[in-house]
Amino acid sequence: MIISPGEASTMAGRRWKSAISSALQRAKKGGEPDPWVVIGGPANTYTHYIVTPEEYAVQRYEGASTLHGQYTLDAYIELTLKYLPYVSEDPPAISAPVGPLPPINAPDGSLHLNTGVVYDNPPLGKKFGDVLLQPEPTYSKSGRGSVVEVKFVGANPRNNLRSENDYVVIEKQSSVGVWEKYRGDEDWEVTYEWKREDGVLGTSEVTAKWAVSELGDRGAADKGRYRVVYFGDRKTPLTGKIVDFKGVSEVFAVV
Q: Which are the contacts of 240, defined by CB distance < 8 A and separation ≥ 6?
């Protein structure tokens, strides 16, 4: 499998795959099946188009967007053939050179245009994670437009970007009464919305929605008992300390 950082034209892809296939044919041992070569890209970055020298000479859209010149394809083929032995059953004894690594610009090396979070406060008489709007007691998995909506007293999500974690999860109660994650805000049918209610007081509101009847990546919701859980992080007004908190809705049923 050729993992390409750029977009190869149809003919460039054919030539690239043909070159790799020919090399594999020459290297294969008796009884091995013929090689099957596929090309996938763009991957990990974007180096624009990869076209044949003939396509580059015409300078139509793809050729004019090939940034590294008419021999771009030849360079990719040469490098792929150079490192092809390293994926064989008997790779060379000398390790392949790592080469230059791309810079990691997040989080310290990035240019931040957003102003920093000054502080967060709950509304008077409320505390972080309090539920402002509870879900309905029941929702139908077969009814069109059946959407769970819950509102929480929240805080600025930029206090913690929660990489590889959730701001909102839908928990389902198991047969033994244990609450387990059922859906997260990575699912299409779950949405998370933050709104700054008052910039001076620092109050925020978070709205979580779950479309139980929509066929997302994992299908419509199962019948059962559920609750919505919100994970937030607040910034204290005086010390600037980041403190995590959690809000939990009332239990509702999907029928």
A: 119
The domain locations on the chain are 2-87, 131-254
Digit-coded pLDDT (tens) for 24-69 = 988 887 777 888 999 998 888 899 999 999 999 999 999 999 999 9
| 21 SS3 class | helix
Fold of 131-254: Immunoglobulin-like (2.60.40)
Instruction: Give the containing element (helix H, strand E) for 174.
Output: none
What distance in Å separates the CA atoms of residue 97 and residue 11, rounded to the nearest whole number? 30
CA-CA distance, 193 to 31, in Å (whole number)?
Answer: 59
**Residues whose CB is less than 8 angstroms from the CB of residue 46 and which lie 6 or more positions away in sequence, other chains included:** 5, 6
pLDDT digits (tens, 9 = 90+) for 120-133: 999 999 999 999 99
